[in-house]
């Protein structure tokens, strides 16, 4: 039996396939995270968007945010946040304050009860993860937050650069709007002939 050892590049030198491997690992992590998140939400009774709003408020620089900023942070449409906020207010988890500089605008602030509810949920999540990480070496666990932070910043830089447009994609791989637009362009070009 012949065994070969793959040559590793020098430390700090990414392989040509490294970005593809990062994308594959990240995609897998996102899928697992979403599936487990839904399961945890069901078990804890916590709902996704309201919880995302509370998390976004807890990370806000001055402890408050505008509804539009919360929508961006939660990854949902502003109308979704608009529907969630009254329920969070009714439960005493957030308060809405008018912006003194702009009467049309408001700031959402996380209340002490909101902090407490969020902390309780996060403690539950942390305990589940602590148990699940039992086989991961402690030095890897210590590096994870920094590595994931670096990855987040890299993804944001990539998003700022914009993605290249792939013109040769099959229709089933294109976004719905792009497919609709290309059909309209094609139909219009045929009408003009």
TrEMBL record:
Disordered: region residues: 162-193
Alphabetical list of PROSITE patterns matching this protein: HTH_MARR_2 (PS50995)
Top-level lineage group: Bacteria
GO terms classed as biological process: response to stress
InterPro entries the record matches: HTH_MarR-typ (IPR000835), MarR/SlyA-like (IPR039422), WH-like_DNA-bd_sf (IPR036388), WH_DNA-bd_sf (IPR036390)
Biased composition, class Basic and acidic residues, residue ranges: 183-193
Any one GO molecular function term: DNA-binding transcription factor activity
HTH marR-type domain span: 19-153
PANTHER family given in the database record: HTH-TYPE TRANSCRIPTIONAL REPRESSOR YETL, TRANSCRIPTIONAL REGULATOR, MARR FAMILY
Designated name of the protein: MarR family winged helix-turn-helix transcriptional regulator
Originating organism: Pedococcus sp. KACC 23699
Lineage: Bacteria, Bacillati, Actinomycetota, Actinomycetes, Micrococcales
């Amino acid at each position: 039996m012949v065994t070969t050892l793959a040559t590793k590049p020098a430390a700090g030198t990414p392989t040509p396939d490294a970005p593809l491997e990062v994308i594959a690992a990240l995609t897998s992590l996102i899928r697992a995270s979403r599936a487990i998140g839904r399961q945890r939400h069901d078990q804890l009774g916590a709902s996704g968007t309201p919880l995302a709003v509370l998390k976004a408020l807890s990370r806000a620089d001055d402890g408050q945010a505008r509804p539009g900023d919360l929508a961006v942070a939660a990854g949902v449409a502003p109308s979704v946040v608009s529907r969630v906020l009254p329920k969070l207010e009714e439960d005493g988890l957030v308060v809405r304050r008018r912006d003194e500089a702009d009467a049309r605008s408001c700031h959402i602030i996380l209340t002490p009860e909101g902090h407490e509810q969020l902390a309780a949920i996060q403690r539950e999540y942390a305990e589940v993860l602590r148990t699940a990480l039992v086989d991961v070496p402690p030095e890897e666990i210590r590096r994870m937050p920094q590595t994931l932070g670096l990855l987040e910043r890299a993804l944001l830089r990539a998003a700022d650069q914009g993605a290249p447009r792939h013109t040769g994609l099959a229709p089933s791989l294109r976004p719905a709007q792009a497919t609709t637009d290309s059909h309209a362009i094609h139909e219009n070009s045929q009408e003009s002939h």
